[in-house]
Amino acid sequence: MKLAFLGMGTMGGPMAANLLKAGHQVTVYNRSREREEPLAAMGAVRAASPREAASGAEVVFLCVSDTPDVEHILLGPNGVIEGAKPGTVVADMSTISPAATRSFAAALAEKGIAMIDAPVSGGSEGAVNGTLAIMVGGDEAVVEKVMPAFQAMGKSITHVGPIGAGQMTKAINQVILAGYYFATGEGIALGLKAGLDVKKVVQAISGGAAASWVLSNRADNMIDNTYPLGFRVRLHQKDLRIALEAASEIGVAMPVAAMVSQFENSLLVHGYGDEDVSALARILRESAGLE
Q1: Whole-angstrom distance, CA of residue 264 vs CA of residue 247
Q2: Among 157, 155, 133, which residue's Cα sits nearest to residue 146?
Q3: Residue pLDDT, tens place only, 146-201
Q4: Degrees, nearest 5: CA angle 9-169-265
Q5: How far apart are CA 124 and CA 15, in angstroms?
Q6: Residue 104 burial class via C-beta count within 10 angstroms: exposed 0-12, middle 13-18, buried 19 and up
Q7: CATH of residue 55
Q8: Which residue is catalytic, options 170, 193, 199, 200?
Q9: In the annotation, is 155 catalytic?
Q10: Is the dihedral of CA 122, 126, 127, 130 positive or negative?
Q11: Cα–Cα separations (whole angstroms), residue 106 to 17, 52, 103, 148
Q12: Predicted TM-score of the model (pTM)
């Protein structure tokens, strides 16, 4: 397939690389142009703008940080809407507002451009390994058209409903993850304070009902009090804001997500926004007198 990929960040770069490895023709664009270079070395074509990248592409993927970034890339000056031809599909793999997603899709539809939302979960490891969970909202026929490309990036691809449903599903994912991260940090702080070998504790409980991706992949961060980048605190906090706004619109209380969001705000204030989300353990360790 002839594809464009916009956004070469921690997630987008490896995702675009997997499309190239699968044999697709890929044109790339990133605001910080040096991030395009590793993809160009793999055979990607570099474009000077989203408009140029979208020109001639069957599917335009984007994976950027927040709702305003998506709006600018799609609808702004030299945006995708100015370069994509009728019949082009836009697949947004960012995590943004469900309501904004529906608005962007309506604007693109006026130009004959279809849009699906396809946010992902699985962290930077999943992006590199091509094992992401992809949550897709949009017209079924359009989703099927994009499926070969999705299969190069993920191992779990689920069509969850109409446009915007992918983003709402991702919001739910982030709310549940907030609880996992926080509860895992609490348990580890308890084990450390009790003087246990917490790595053995994690091994023991990983075989039972407490097992989770967070416990398997991020417990060592919390035990060692080091938080190398997997998924940034600031981005998870943004995701929780989106989820809390969506919940407020439909009248659902989310006390755990709201609490974790406030703790993440504190991490941002103290300069930890670019650490992995498991840095929530910093606060729990401190409150337990471990720091």
Answers
A1: 19
A2: 157
A3: 999 999 999 999 999 999 999 999 999 999 999 999 999 999 999 999 999 999 99
A4: 60
A5: 10
A6: buried
A7: 3.40.50.720
A8: 170
A9: no
A10: negative
A11: 30, 22, 5, 25
A12: 0.93
